[in-house]
């Protein structure tokens, strides 16, 4: 059975073998020669092989010639979806272990659970699971048009769907309707769930929706959202890549409209 290792540094930068196609799964013997403090070594449980993640406190790029460090975000497009998901899982688990070393209730050092993927407080028995934050993301449709917005964090000229965190006590549909109202000022109805995507920046789970426009005029705050417009399905601006759930939702809308057009 193949044994592979994902290697990250203390700042969650990923060790990548240089070449045409980036490689993030390395032979498990790779880091034996690196003189470094081991921060975490965790089994990820990948099917068809034994995959671990190793986090080292070392200057990895100079210790390992032929390799370089890359941010997780820069690997979203070049890596295949499953490889990116394992990498995201590895980084999320290392971050979780680092950030839950002590119980938030009583301050005692936590310990790995013997039965669950959890850190447990031996003093008050509180459990801490990897932190996953549910978010909603979706497209507002109005016939042949969809509403796309340019956020302050988006690269220049890229227009995308509306997204935001689910708040305590909300269901996902309520969260999406609220985010739409807050970000672009319109009202939606017929909110329909599509599919989801883990989004490890640092630990979101994106729940994808479509919804129909029900009224209101576009109004943006000019800070989080810079501009938003209605676009016909065959006259779209630059949209996110297919590797993102927003890109997939928009392209699915386009395909539906193309199929429906005689
Ligand atoms: Zn405790």
TrEMBL record:
It comes from the Bacteria. The keyword Magnesium applies. GO terms for molecular function: hydrolase activity; metal ion binding. It is an enzyme of class 3 (hydrolase). Its cofactor is Mg(2+). The keyword Metal-binding applies. It holds the Pfam family NUDIX. Its EC number is 3.6.1.22. Residues 130-254 form the Nudix hydrolase domain. Keywords: Hydrolase, Magnesium, Metal-binding, NAD. This is NAD(+) diphosphatase. It comes from Teredinibacter turnerae (strain ATCC 39867 / T7901).
């Amino acid at each position: 059975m193949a044994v592979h290792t994902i290697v990250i540094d203390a700042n969650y930068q990923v060790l990548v073998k240089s070449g045409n196609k980036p490689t993030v799964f390395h032979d498990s013997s790779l880091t034996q020669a690196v003189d470094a403090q081991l921060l975490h070594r965790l089994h990820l449980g990948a099917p068809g092989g034994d995959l671990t993640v190793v986090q080292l406190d070392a200057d990895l790029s100079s210790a390992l010639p032929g390799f370089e460090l890359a941010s997780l975000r820069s690997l979203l497009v070049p890596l295949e979806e499953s490889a990116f998901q394992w990498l995201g899982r590895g980084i999320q688990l290392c971050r979780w272990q680092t950030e839950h070393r002590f119980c938030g209730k009583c301050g005692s050092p936590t310990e790995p659970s013997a039965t669950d993927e959890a850190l447990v407080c031996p003093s008050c028995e509180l459990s801490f699971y990897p932190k996953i934050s549910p978010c909603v993301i979706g497209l507002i449709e109005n016939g042949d048009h969809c509403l796309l917005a340019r956020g302050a964090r988006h690269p220049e000229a890229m227009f995308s769907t509306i997204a935001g965190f689910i708040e305590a006590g909300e269901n996902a549909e309520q969260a999406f309707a609220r985010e739409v109202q807050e970000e672009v000022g319109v009202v939606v109805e017929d909110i329909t769930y599509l599919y989801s995507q883990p989004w490890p920046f640092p630990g979101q789970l994106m729940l994808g929706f479509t919804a129909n426009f029900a009224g209101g005029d576009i109004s943006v705050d000019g800070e989080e959202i810079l501009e938003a417009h209605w676009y016909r399905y065959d006259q779209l601006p630059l949209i996110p890549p297919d590797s993102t759930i927003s890109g997939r939702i928009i392209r699915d809308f386009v395909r539906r409209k193309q199929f429906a057009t005689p």
